[in-house]
Write a structure and sequence with these properties.
Elements: E1 4-7, E2 14-15, H1 17-30, H2 38-44, H3 49-56, H4 63-78, E3 86-87, H5 91-100, E4 104-112, H6 113-124, E5 130-134, H7 145-154, E6 161-165, H8 168-177, E7 181-184, H9 191-197, E8 201-203, H10 206-215, H11 218-227
Parallel strand pairs: 1-4, 1-6, 4-5, 6-7, 7-8
Antiparallel strand pairs: 2-3
The protein binds 2-phosphoglycolic acid (PGA).
Protein name: Phosphoglycolate phosphatase
GO biological process, one term: DNA repair
GO molecular function, one term: phosphoglycolate phosphatase activity
């Protein structure tokens, strides 16, 4: 039986898009670069802030100017991380229900570790046991290292764990770690994209996760996801 759920943060538990875009555009303005639309930023998110800024600056921007832009972004975002950021509808009851049913819950994100911990503390308090972000020396998703360290901290094993996320990075992280990935259609990429990337199942509302996890054991779950 599944007893552990590892969640992605941006686009899965929290809608962070507007705050991320505000941070990107603040930095671009400081550099006199053209701003990016919300839709563009949505596509740029997923591989951490360095990639986010590399994708946002104009093509051909030097490494030095990209780093300056990154610095402006970090400066701004660290104090504006929670202006418009909110949990998606149904996430808070889902986490409460998972806790009540005895599931162990972790969060693994490619955003700054401090931002991940602050946001999880603020919104999910004791419903999330382990929350990890981008830390120096630990490869970011889709490398599986962050999954292994979270499982160790939770005292969990791969065979009883699922990963839940909204992007290709999450699908690949899960599979690189040997876990099934349940995609969420409400995030930054959508159902069709996640199915194409190989998500084992895609859900359209947080409450669907609970049904999936509690109604079937792991081998049956693997069969049942194909029918979704
Ligand atoms: O900051 C990012 O690039 C993505 O963050 P996430 O891993 O929580 O989706």
């Amino acid at each position: 039986m599944i007893d552990t759920v590892l969640f992605d943060l941006d686009g899965t538990l929290l809608n962070t898009l507007e705050d991320i875009a505000a941070g990107v555009n603040h930095a671009l303005r400081k550099m006199n670069f053209p701003e990016r639309s919300l839709e563009e930023v949505r596509q740029f998110v997923g591989n951490g802030v360095i990639m986010l800024i590399k994708r946002a600056v104009p093509a051909g921007t030097s490494e030095e100017l990209t780093n300056t832009c990154l610095m402006y972004n970090k400066e701004y975002y660290s104090s504006h991380v929670n202006e418009k950021t909110r949990p998606y509808e149904g996430i808070l009851p889902l986490l409460k229900a998972l806790k009540a049913k005895g599931f162990k819950v972790g969060v693994i994100s490619n955003k700054y570790d401090s931002a991940v911990k602050d946001l999880c503390r603020l919104y999910f308090s004791d419903d999330v046991t382990v929350a990890v972000g981008n830390r120096t020396g630990v490869p970011t998703k889709p490398a599986p290292d962050c999954v292994y360290s979270a499982l160790e901290e939770l005292g969990s094993v791969k065979s009883q764990t699922v990963f839940v996320g909204d992007s290709d990075v999450d699908v690949h992280t899960a599979h690189n770690a040997g876990l099934p990935c349940i995609g969420v259609s409400w995030g930054f990429r959508g159902r069709t994209f996640l199915e194409k990337e190989g998500a084992d199942a895609v859900i359209d509302a947080p409450s669907e996760l609970l049904t999936l996890l509690t109604s079937v054991s792991m081998p049956k779950y693997k069969e049942s996801v194909k029918r979704l």
